[in-house]
Amino acid sequence: MEKNLKEKAIQIKGKAYVQVSHRIIFFNETYKEGCIITEMLSPVESEHIIIKATVYPEGLNGRKFVGHSQATIGDGMVNKTSALENAETSAVGRALALMGIGVIDSVASVDEINKATGSQGKTKSGSFCSACGSEGIISAKTGKPYCPNFLRHKNEGIKYNLTTKEEDARVIEYNRKNKEDFDNDKPPFE
Q1: What pLDDT digit, counting tens, does each position of 88-124 carry?
Q2: Where are the alpha helices (DSSP H) in the chain?
Q3: What CA–CA distance (Å, rounded) separates 161 from 62?
Q4: pTM, whole model, 2 decimals?
Protein backbone atom coordinates (compact mmCIF):
# COMPACT_ATOMS: atom_id res chain seq x y z
CA MET A 1 0.00 0.00 0.00
CA GLU A 2 1.35 3.41 -0.97
CA LYS A 3 1.89 6.06 1.70
CA ASN A 4 -0.54 8.47 0.03
CA LEU A 5 -3.36 5.87 0.45
CA LYS A 6 -4.88 6.97 -2.85
CA GLU A 7 -6.98 3.80 -3.04
CA LYS A 8 -8.74 4.87 0.20
CA ALA A 9 -9.48 8.43 -0.95
CA ILE A 10 -12.94 9.95 -1.12
CA GLN A 11 -13.88 13.08 -3.08
CA ILE A 12 -14.73 16.24 -1.16
CA LYS A 13 -15.28 19.48 -3.02
CA GLY A 14 -13.55 17.92 -6.04
CA LYS A 15 -10.36 16.96 -4.16
CA ALA A 16 -9.14 13.56 -3.05
CA TYR A 17 -9.12 13.18 0.73
CA VAL A 18 -8.01 10.27 2.93
CA GLN A 19 -9.90 9.94 6.19
CA VAL A 20 -7.94 10.09 9.44
CA SER A 21 -9.00 6.55 10.38
CA HIS A 22 -7.19 5.17 7.31
CA ARG A 23 -4.11 7.27 8.11
CA ILE A 24 -4.01 5.91 11.67
CA ILE A 25 -4.38 2.30 10.51
CA PHE A 26 -1.56 2.76 7.97
CA PHE A 27 0.66 4.35 10.64
CA ASN A 28 0.07 1.55 13.16
CA GLU A 29 0.66 -1.19 10.58
CA THR A 30 3.77 0.43 9.10
CA TYR A 31 5.51 1.99 12.11
CA LYS A 32 5.46 -0.74 14.77
CA GLU A 33 7.68 1.27 17.16
CA GLY A 34 5.76 4.50 16.56
CA CYS A 35 3.30 6.28 18.80
CA ILE A 36 0.83 9.15 18.68
CA ILE A 37 0.46 11.48 21.66
CA THR A 38 -2.24 14.14 21.97
CA GLU A 39 -2.35 17.03 24.39
CA MET A 40 -5.03 19.61 25.15
CA LEU A 41 -3.47 23.09 25.09
CA SER A 42 -6.57 25.12 25.95
CA PRO A 43 -7.99 25.41 29.47
CA VAL A 44 -10.52 22.66 30.25
CA GLU A 45 -13.31 25.20 30.84
CA SER A 46 -12.71 27.03 27.54
CA GLU A 47 -15.29 26.79 24.74
CA HIS A 48 -12.37 27.01 22.27
CA ILE A 49 -10.55 23.69 22.29
CA ILE A 50 -6.97 23.49 21.02
CA ILE A 51 -5.29 20.11 20.61
CA LYS A 52 -1.69 19.27 19.77
CA ALA A 53 -0.87 15.87 18.29
CA THR A 54 2.67 14.56 18.04
CA VAL A 55 3.50 11.55 15.88
CA TYR A 56 6.72 9.61 16.56
CA PRO A 57 7.29 7.06 13.76
CA GLU A 58 10.47 5.59 15.32
CA GLY A 59 9.46 5.86 18.96
CA LEU A 60 9.87 8.70 21.46
CA ASN A 61 13.57 9.24 20.73
CA GLY A 62 13.21 9.56 16.95
CA ARG A 63 11.78 12.12 14.56
CA LYS A 64 8.48 13.75 15.37
CA PHE A 65 5.68 15.44 13.42
CA VAL A 66 3.34 17.90 15.14
CA GLY A 67 -0.17 18.92 14.14
CA HIS A 68 -2.59 21.29 15.83
CA SER A 69 -6.33 21.73 15.60
CA GLN A 70 -8.99 23.85 17.21
CA ALA A 71 -12.73 23.53 17.60
CA THR A 72 -15.36 25.71 19.20
CA ILE A 73 -18.04 23.99 21.25
CA GLY A 74 -21.39 24.41 19.51
CA ASP A 75 -19.88 25.52 16.18
CA GLY A 76 -21.36 23.13 13.62
CA MET A 77 -23.24 19.93 14.12
CA VAL A 78 -20.37 17.70 15.34
CA ASN A 79 -19.00 20.30 17.75
CA LYS A 80 -22.30 20.54 19.62
CA THR A 81 -21.54 17.21 21.30
CA SER A 82 -17.99 16.19 20.32
CA ALA A 83 -15.79 19.26 19.90
CA LEU A 84 -12.89 17.76 21.88
CA GLU A 85 -12.92 14.51 19.92
CA ASN A 86 -13.28 16.37 16.63
CA ALA A 87 -10.29 18.62 17.39
CA GLU A 88 -8.19 15.66 18.51
CA THR A 89 -8.95 13.66 15.36
CA SER A 90 -8.12 16.66 13.17
CA ALA A 91 -4.83 17.29 14.99
CA VAL A 92 -3.80 13.63 14.57
CA GLY A 93 -4.78 13.78 10.91
CA ARG A 94 -2.65 16.89 10.37
CA ALA A 95 0.37 15.39 12.14
CA LEU A 96 0.12 12.23 10.02
CA ALA A 97 -0.34 14.36 6.87
CA LEU A 98 2.81 16.35 7.73
CA MET A 99 4.55 12.99 7.83
CA GLY A 100 3.19 12.38 4.32
CA ILE A 101 0.56 9.78 5.19
CA GLY A 102 -2.64 10.13 3.19
CA VAL A 103 -1.62 13.30 1.35
CA ILE A 104 -2.92 13.50 -2.21
CA ASP A 105 -4.31 16.98 -2.96
CA SER A 106 -3.95 18.74 0.38
CA VAL A 107 -2.92 18.47 4.02
CA ALA A 108 -6.25 20.05 5.05
CA SER A 109 -8.80 17.96 6.93
CA VAL A 110 -12.46 17.59 5.97
CA ASP A 111 -13.37 20.00 8.78
CA GLU A 112 -10.87 22.58 7.54
CA ILE A 113 -12.22 22.28 3.99
CA ASN A 114 -15.77 22.74 5.25
CA LYS A 115 -14.81 25.69 7.49
CA ALA A 116 -12.92 27.39 4.67
CA THR A 117 -15.80 27.02 2.22
CA GLY A 118 -18.40 27.87 4.86
CA SER A 119 -20.26 24.63 4.27
CA GLN A 120 -19.84 22.81 7.55
CA GLY A 121 -23.33 21.41 7.90
CA LYS A 122 -24.83 24.58 6.44
CA THR A 123 -25.42 23.86 2.76
CA LYS A 124 -29.19 23.92 2.35
CA SER A 125 -30.70 21.22 0.19
CA GLY A 126 -34.04 22.77 -0.76
CA SER A 127 -35.76 19.78 0.86
CA PHE A 128 -37.66 19.65 4.13
CA CYS A 129 -38.08 17.00 6.82
CA SER A 130 -41.51 15.36 7.02
CA ALA A 131 -41.07 14.77 10.77
CA CYS A 132 -40.01 18.23 11.99
CA GLY A 133 -40.19 20.58 8.99
CA SER A 134 -36.50 21.54 9.21
CA GLU A 135 -34.72 22.31 5.98
CA GLY A 136 -32.42 19.48 4.95
CA ILE A 137 -28.68 20.05 4.70
CA ILE A 138 -26.20 18.48 2.33
CA SER A 139 -23.74 15.98 3.81
CA ALA A 140 -20.13 16.96 3.09
CA LYS A 141 -19.25 13.26 3.13
CA THR A 142 -21.92 11.79 0.85
CA GLY A 143 -23.31 14.83 -0.96
CA LYS A 144 -26.85 13.70 -0.09
CA PRO A 145 -29.45 15.69 1.89
CA TYR A 146 -30.44 14.77 5.44
CA CYS A 147 -32.46 16.25 8.29
CA PRO A 148 -30.30 18.16 10.81
CA ASN A 149 -32.38 16.50 13.56
CA PHE A 150 -31.91 12.94 12.29
CA LEU A 151 -30.32 11.75 15.56
CA ARG A 152 -33.27 13.01 17.57
CA HIS A 153 -35.66 11.29 15.16
CA LYS A 154 -33.66 8.08 15.40
CA ASN A 155 -33.60 8.16 19.22
CA GLU A 156 -37.34 8.82 19.31
CA GLY A 157 -38.08 6.12 16.71
CA ILE A 158 -39.58 8.64 14.30
CA LYS A 159 -39.48 7.80 10.61
CA TYR A 160 -39.03 10.74 8.25
CA ASN A 161 -38.61 11.62 4.61
CA LEU A 162 -37.35 14.71 2.87
CA THR A 163 -39.81 16.55 0.64
CA THR A 164 -39.03 19.33 -1.82
CA LYS A 165 -41.91 21.53 -0.70
CA GLU A 166 -41.67 23.40 2.58
CA GLU A 167 -45.47 23.66 2.69
CA ASP A 168 -45.77 19.85 2.57
CA ALA A 169 -43.40 19.47 5.50
CA ARG A 170 -45.34 22.04 7.54
CA VAL A 171 -48.66 20.31 6.82
CA ILE A 172 -47.19 16.94 7.78
CA GLU A 173 -45.65 18.41 10.94
CA TYR A 174 -48.97 20.05 11.90
CA ASN A 175 -50.94 16.87 11.28
CA ARG A 176 -48.41 14.76 13.16
CA LYS A 177 -48.59 16.99 16.21
CA ASN A 178 -52.33 16.51 16.33
CA LYS A 179 -52.22 12.73 16.05
CA GLU A 180 -53.00 10.69 19.13
CA ASP A 181 -50.22 8.27 18.20
CA PHE A 182 -47.63 11.04 18.36
CA ASP A 183 -48.78 12.03 21.85
CA ASN A 184 -48.28 8.42 22.95
CA ASP A 185 -44.69 8.41 21.65
CA LYS A 186 -45.52 6.10 18.76
CA PRO A 187 -43.60 6.83 15.57
CA PRO A 188 -45.71 8.61 12.94
CA PHE A 189 -45.87 7.50 9.31
CA GLU A 190 -45.79 3.76 10.00
Answers
A1: 999 999 999 999 999 887 676 555 655 555 544 456 6
A2: 20-30, 83-98, 110-117, 150-156, 166-178, 180-183
A3: 53
A4: 0.59
